Amino acid sequence: MKLLFFLCSYVFLSYADIAHPSTFSPVYTNLAIADTDPKVLTFNGNSLSVITAESRVSVVVIPPKNSTNYHFLRGVMFYDGPDWNSTYLGSAMQFWKSENQMVSTGNTLTVQYLTLLNSVDGYVVLQEYEKTKMIASYQGVACGLSMNICGVELDNLSGPSAMVTYVPDGLFYFGETVTGMGGTGTLDVYIGGVTKNQKNLIKSYTNDDSESGFPQRINGNIRTYVLRGNKTDMAMIFNQRENDPLPETIGKKGFISSNHYLQNGKSQEVHENIRVNQLATFSFAIDTADLSSNATCSIKIYNNKDVVYSYDNTNLPSLSNVVQVIGDSLTVDFSSNGNINVPQGWFATFYLIVNTTGLSDGSAPVQIIDQMGRTEDVFSIREWVYFIAEYGKIKISTGKAKVKIGFDVQWMPYPSMESNIVKVKENDTRPVVFSRYVAVAVRISADTQVSATIIPPRYESDIQYLRGVMFFDGESGNATCLGTGLQLLNGETQFVSSGKYMTIIYLRIPFAYNYVQYVFQDYESIKDIVQFQGKQFVNWYDSAMFSLNASNGPVALQTLLNGQNFEVVTRLEGAGILDVYQGRITKNGTNLITSYYAENCERYLPQIFFGTPKTYVLRSGHATLNISGGEYENFAPTNSFGRQGIIASGDYGTMSKLQDISVEIDGVLNKSSVFRYYIQSADLIPGVKLEIQTKQDGNRYTTTYDSSNLPYFNLFNELPGKSFYITYRSNGNTNKGFLLNFEIVKSSVATKLFGVIMLTIMNIFASH
């Protein structure tokens, strides 16, 4: 018997056709032979870049630290020319596996990221080929996170061998610590990239340095190691922390450099602490120190925590002059202050990291100063910062505190302008509320002037992104800057245009912008408001307390509902009259649905409000207002007779399809109650229905109002029951909604009889 069988492999392929963007809109980058730092593209940067060099473009790929993300390298494409129609050179995956640099044939190269990936940390390192053409083997190395140990092998079989490492913006502890090397040859260490004049070559190691020269910390966010000789093995600790330095041994030699040595416009701040476990002689000499632009340098030697010698700008030793001091530790602090220049139509962005420890006199060690001279005090943050033309400034005044600061600036052009103009009218009953999910500029026009206010983000950690939203007094980003979203929030005020136009620019879009809403309206009806607060209710359990102080003029609270369709005012105490508008403040008050005396409003609370947005205005006095998102827990129960309130549809007073509501009101528990109500207004056009239902002894009784059964407005009706339900349905019809006043009163025999008769008559009438 012969048995034949076949083994078949099946491959299931899932794919999607993705077209090129409709327009070729790259970010342009220039490379120069004189540059000491390479340019670095990230996976979460621009999707399309064109690079121009003086000679040719060299590319080295640094892979993601996590091997599960290597496949994303296939989505980074390189074209040998000025656009995506040029010859295709290959993907980042192919270049990385070759362990060499890829070089353009001409002086331009196009890089396209098919997918932007915020969580994938691969990098494309770009350099002028004239500086790197002698390197035969070139690899990008991703060692991992803080304290990860990384081993690297370099050989010189075909010529000089190099590797580049990179720490992206946003990681505070720039650099790595080389713990040792073995083999033969000379290892050149550059802060930045390889240069022909080697001015940023900070150290050359041979095997003779293996004992006294290591460990050695190499600062900066990009470093290049070049082997000249035969072969060497290196071991390094990536991103070693400075907080707890290991004790050094007697005979150790090394150097200390600032984070971006020789680079203008970048953070040079560095704090180094070198200690030994016994008294020793510290010998040091200052090779270079740029003390221009208010830079400061401090060198201190300690003995058992007491300062033995202290040097600063006033008494620094002469360059190359060797100083010897006995002690057990040495600290070096270097900081620089200077402008970060920004051209018109561009912005600068960076992730600022400040870590302050030790003694402080209470003043901020770091200040962010924008182009208008407005300051923001910083003690310890890890947040994004943005500057626009003409410049911004980071001012550092550490005093006695130990301050660590790091940032790396990127310059980008303003995003494009939306073609549509957002319009706000003086007679609007609702403001314009919007957010954007892409980097974009938007123009707003008004009948008189444009007012901008803010509803803050839900999470405090997202407030930092408001620095990246800019407001301009005119029709473009070239107009006078009114401020940022963060300044608008912190000022609890409104930005107002001098004319009829305002422009808002979202410089960069993180996910957090989804939780931030900006409110635009015509200024005429709100020009007397001196303070604005805001709140967005997302969940039924959201609650907040607001302090409204109108001693200097009227103050306003604006609320939005996102995921909820109602909010409940649970408490109002203090003094003054609180007006509640369904929408925005209006001169004629057509959408003013109720007012409260803060001194005497217990029987009117809790009170439910449907729809979004709403504006609460206190015109005098000082009051505390509590608002919650839960309906049944906070609104439905009635604690005592005499409770009064209103029920208004979601967009009452405005022609809208968003009027539908459904609400329950309970009587007093275990007591006979009567729902006493009258209808002020109801726009019961054909198709719209208002139902009032009562539950009594297990039965439900319903009164229905519609275009064929209109209510008697402003006349009381009484319905006995344990629970009462009010439902308003527009059924897709545009209408102005309804407003109903109610009171929960104690039942009596006459009231019960009257209520039953009224209910019966209404039901009979409704049936005809």
UniProtKB/TrEMBL annotation:
The lineage of its organism: Eukaryota, Metazoa, Ecdysozoa, Nematoda, Chromadorea. It comes from the Eukaryota. Keywords: Signal. Residues 130-235, 524-628 form the DUF7591 domain. This is Uncharacterized protein. Residues 339-415 form the CUB-like domain. Residues 1-16 form the signal peptide. Residues 30-114, 423-507 form the DUF7592 domain. PANTHER family: CUB-LIKE DOMAIN-CONTAINING PROTEIN-RELATED, PROTEIN CBG15905-RELATED. It comes from Caenorhabditis brenneri (Nematode worm).
